[in-house]
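Write out this protein's structure.
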Amino acid sequence: MMLLYLLLALINKTCAVLAVDKSSGIIQDTGVKTATVGDTVTLQCSCLDDDVTYFSWYQQSLDSKPHTISTLLKHNTEADIYDEYKERFDVVVQTEHGVNNLMITGISLSDSAMYYCGISVFNGIEFGQGVFLHVKSSQSNIHTVVHQPVLEPLQQGDSMKLSCTVYAEPCAGERSLYWIRHGASQPAVLYPSEGQCTSLPNGRTNCSLNLTLNAVRSSDAGTYYCAVASCGEVVIGDGTEVQLVGSSEMSPLLVYCLAVAMAVSTIVLLVLAFILYKLKKSLCSACKGTASHLECPAASGAPRSDADSLHYAALDLRRSGERHTDGVCVYSTVKCRKQ
């Protein structure tokens, strides 16, 4: 029972690890990609998985939920692009290589957003890690200064605090602050932040925002970027890399090998148990067969008799003309009584 429990635990752990790494089949641009207003940008995405049925692209601005840009049936050469993106967005397709690149022409400030490449597999959607497209104008009125020391590698369970300071020119409209995390093996995550803003004598605004994570795990590792959306554009800091050492998480390969070894051991044990059962059954059948030969009434079905002794009939097989031989006794009937 304990062996079965351990096997199920390892299989569950393997599935969890594989679930984390599920997007590894998607190859797409990651991190932050910078462009200038008016440029043409191509975001790379490809996947050679035979189980893929659809490709898709999604855009998530800092202040909104993801929106679908395009969908592509695997073996088609032309993607279906949604109406609001048809004017400047196009999809470059190479079906033989599983390529589904997104091309944006005439880049504008409103195109600053996170872009995810997605695939449909068995009625489920998997996402790539995502890439943040940072569009700059030729004359930006926002200046950011990121004050954050280089973090020492952390242990699992530690707490970390990231800080960022933004100096912005005054302008109309709201100001939004964010943290953007790009992990090593997971899709990017946006963390909205309220921050604390104060007005300076020179008319600028000084905003400070902090990000605190308690009991960090391996999934928290990655690069964290400080971002501000103000005056119609987005500005991003240089980013801080968070590394974890001494991870207690088992590597996917080790977990897989242990699960396979446990499964093979279980199968071998079941086979041995079956062989022992059949062998024991055969031996018991042989024992019962020997005993039945010794017990006359049980095996032969001969009529029972109350006689307490055996009755013999002697035959003389000598023929005339032959030399004298010893008599041979042949028993015609043997009767016994069950004790």
